[in-house]
Amino acid sequence: MKELLRTNDITAIAFAKALLDGEGIDCFEMDVNMSVLEGGIGILPRRLMVRQADLFQARAIMRDNGIEYEGRG
């Protein structure tokens, strides 16, 4: 799995997941339960992961829909 998106914006994560799902690309959201540690204030970013084979296409989908990815992978 490679990191596609890292953001604090939960609406960007939801939009990205919907776009990827529409294109048949499986993704996995990580760090969802970190709010337990941070107290629910949203300071810790969530990560959206995709398979290595889907990374290029997933980044193109993000770019085409105006989502800037902050991934490191």
TrEMBL record:
Can you give the residue ranges of the DUF2007 domain?
Answer: 1-64
Which organism is the protein's source? Profundibacter amoris
Cited InterPro entries: DUF2007, N-reg_PII-like_a/b
Report the SUPFAM superfamilies cross-referenced here: GlnB-like (SSF54913)
Segments forming a coiled coil: none
Protein name from the UniProt record: DUF2007 domain-containing protein
Q: Which domain of life is it from?
A: Bacteria
